[in-house]
Every structure is written in structure tokens, then in C-alpha cells.
Amino acid sequence: MDVEECMRCRRSIRKYLSTPLSMDQIGRVLDAGRLAPTAGNLQNYKVILVRERAGIQKIAEAALQQYWIETAPVILAIVAEPQRARQFYGERGEKAYSIMNCATIAENMALTAHAIGLATCMVGAFDQDMMRAAVGAPDYVNVELILTLGYPDEKVPVPERYKLTDMVFLERWGARIANLDTSTRVWSTTVQKNLEKGKQLFRRGSKTLFQQIQDRTLDVHDKVKQSLKQRKR
């Protein structure tokens, strides 16, 4: 599965099978997080792997009683060390970069999990003090998010997404592009429709693009030859 396909078909899953995960599977997901970019390559985070049921129950309770979390066989708590970021980048490092780092780690893990047939859900709604206690974290670190991990036991429909034209401005705030899909050459519904039309024409016996180019080239070549002959006369 390539990266783009993985991003398009990944879903947030809130119901899991009780099937246990191997350490090889968990290790691949964890290693994907390790490879994620962090500000200044600071890597100011830790991941707490939780598999014991009692620990998972405490996490679900700390997460504002989201008891669906208990169905996951594995929980990954992504914890930031904000003071390390503050030493290098000041207040912005502590309050922004540390959170951003944990988010990139979680995304890497989620995509890799999906690629190997597993499912995840990022959870950010929880009581910080309760969550620290649930995973045994000290007061000077912050649990930024929880990642549930396991085999999915539900099918989630494709969520609606805004169009690129609703999300992207050109050069400055508010400057919209009329047809961003075409102008940026992204793999969009516009491109897919055109490709489908091309396939239909090909099935009807139309010439391929290369044949059309070749014919056009020969036609131009013949016209040039005729023009040269007329000049010689």
C-alpha cells in the first residue's frame, strides 16, 4: 500500500477485536514514530506502551470515561518533555513545538498501523493529571495524546472533506483559486474524470495519445517539405 492510498483509506476506529498483537507488529508501529520529524531533531518525547487490562481501564477512565478505549488490546501514550524544548526554543518550543512533535509521531504510527492491517484512533480528550497517574508519568511531562491500536471491529464510512478550494489560499489570506485541482495538478476528481473519459475513448478504438502525436508530427513534417519544395521553384 502506497502512502497516498494509506492516507485516503485510513479511518479512526473506536471498536476493536480482542485479537492480541505481536511484538513485531507493535514494534513496526513504534519504529514508524521514531522516524517522525521533530523540531531541531530534538526528539523530546517518550512513548508508553500499555497492554495490561488494568492499565487500559485507567486510561479509559482518565479519557473522560471513553470506555470504548477498553476494547483496544494496546494503548500508546505519547508523552512530551516540554522543558527540553524550552531550553532551545523558549516558550514557543514548550507550548507549540512539543505538541507538534507528538502529532507527527502519532500520524506516522497511525499510517503505518493501517498499512499493516491494524487500526488506530487518536484521543486527545482527557484529564491531564489523571492520565499522568494512569501511565505513571511525572509532573514535568505532558501526555499529549493517546493512540489506540488493534484489529478493527467496525467499518467506518468515508468522512466528508472540504474541497481544496475551500482550504487553500494563493500567496495571501483570502485569495482563492478558481480551479485548484487543475492548476496544481493534484490527483483529484477532475483528473480522475478525464482519465476515465480517456479510457472510454481508447476502448472505442480511438488512437492512443502517442499515435495522435506521431500523426501530428508526420503531418507537420509533410507540410514543411512541401513548403521547402515551393521555395526551390
Structure commentary:
The protein is of the alpha+beta class and 233 residues long. The chain has two domains: 3-150, NADH Oxidase; 164-232, no CATH class. The chain contains nine helices and four strands; from the N terminus they run ααβαβαβαβαααα. Strands 1-2-4-3 form a four-stranded antiparallel β-sheet, with helices on both faces. Helix 2 (23-34) crosses helix 4 and helix 3 packs antiparallel against helix 5.
List the helices and strands and how they pair.
Layout: H1 3-9, H2 23-34, E1 45-50, H3 53-62, E2 74-80, H4 82-115, E3 119-123, H5 128-135, E4 142-150, H6 164-167, H7 180-183, H8 189-203, H9 209-232
Helix pairs in contact: 2-4, 3-5
List keywords for this structure.
9 helices, 2 domains, 233 residues, alpha+beta, 4-stranded antiparallel beta sheet, NADH Oxidase
Q: Any low-confidence stretches, pLDDT <50, length ≥5? A: none
Number of helices in the DSSP assignment = 9
Could you tell me the number of beta strands?
4
Which assembly state applies to the chains in this document? single chain
Amount of beta strand = 5-15%
CATH superfamily of the largest domain: NADH Oxidase
Domain module tally: 2
Structural class: alpha+beta
**CATH topology group of the largest domain:** NADH Oxidase
Based on Cα principal axes, name the global outline: elongated
Q: Helix and strand string, N-terminal first?
A: HHEHEHEHEHHHH
**How many angstroms separate the termini?**
64 Å
CATH architecture of the largest domain: 3-Layer(aba) Sandwich
Largest sheet: 4 strands, antiparallel
C-alpha Rg, in Å? Answer: 27 Å
Mean pLDDT: 88
Give the strand order, joined by hyphens, for the main sheet: 1-2-4-3
* Helix content range: 40-55%
What is the highest CATH level, the class of the largest domain?
Answer: Alpha Beta
